[in-house]
Amino acid sequence: WARSRDVDAPERAETLLEKMEELYRQGNKDVCPNTVSYSAVINAWAKSREKGAAQRAEAILNHMLKLQEAGREECLPNTVSFTAVIDAWAKSRDKNAYAHAQKLFQQMQLIGKAVKPDVLMYTSLINALAVSSTPDKATKAFDVLLEMLRK
User: Fold this and answer.
1) How far apart are CA 101 and CA 79, in angstroms?
2) What confidence tens digit (pLDDT) does each residue in 21-47 have?
3) 37 Cβ partners below 8 Å, 6+ apart?
């Protein structure tokens, strides 16, 4: 659904994910939602550019974190998951996009070695900075670039 041009693609993807969760709770282990399935729905929201898409993507990421904390290791968000949510904030045109993206970036670093920032994540972080109302954006973008080069 992430590549679909359909306006309702993210809602349909999320509905399918919810159905998978329901079937899994009912004992059907063949439809166990995992990092890939959750990340696909996050990506669908990120690509949609709908109003509220970034908030929806972040809510799904937070749901993944709660599932992982409850013992569902197959739901641990990865670099793709975090990058998609940061990208959703960058595309949201929200004046606070960078604050949200920066918070997610810091949250990701707490997970440890399983999740490492990559070029796409740094690019999304810079894009979020560009659309935000953060003062001294150019200097901060340069700082993000330098951090990327150090990694």
Assistant:
1) 13
2) 999 999 999 999 999 999 999 999 999
3) 17, 20
